[in-house]
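Appendix B. One record, verbatim.
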Amino acid sequence: MFVTTHNMLDADLLCDRVAFISNGNIVALDTPRNLKEQNSSHSIVVDYLYQGRREEQTIEASELKAGIPFAYDKLISVHSQEPTLEDIFIQYAGRRLS
């Protein structure tokens, strides 16, 4: 089956392989998982309290080799953040989908 869509969430959930077309050319073709793994870095989102205020900071996973590089009073949550297929499309096409 062939599906065409501007909805990257649908493409990610429904398709085994995805092709990105920009200016009439196929600029990428692979599985959604491979496209994400090959073309992006993973981030860590840290939610914490600092001087009574709730803060959130996004850190590239590669920066965490020496631990969380900032001061905090209370750590609330830490979770990984994977780029979306739309984020990857923007890397290839240089623009958002309309």
